[in-house]
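ok new one. same drill as before - structure tokens go in, u give me an amino acid for every spot. 80 of them this time. try not to just spam alanines like last time pls lmao
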């Protein structure tokens, strides 16, 4: 069970970091080297903001989950 949870955490962090990296690549012009419009820059900024938002929300929710799961395990220990 522990290995599965660790694997899922790694996958979650990896996907969110990849989204941020894709945004940076859009801003640098890697995907659209000949397009001089602002569209790739805007898409890059949106990807970076979205990836950062998802990373922060995942971190907050995982801490909250750990806090509540610790509370439940303490309650079970007290009953026994």
């Amino acid at each position: 069970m522990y290995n599965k949870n660790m694997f899922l955490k790694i996958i979650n962090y990896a996907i969110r970091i990849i989204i941020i990296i894709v945004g940076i690549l859009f801003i640098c012009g890697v995907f659209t080297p000949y397009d001089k419009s602002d569209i790739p820059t805007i898409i890059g900024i949106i990807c970076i903001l979205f990836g950062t938002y998802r990373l922060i929300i995942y971190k907050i929710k995982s801490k909250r989950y750990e806090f509540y799961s610790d509370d439940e395990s303490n309650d079970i220990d007290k009953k026994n």
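The mean pLDDT is 84. and btw The two ends are 23 Å apart (CA to CA).
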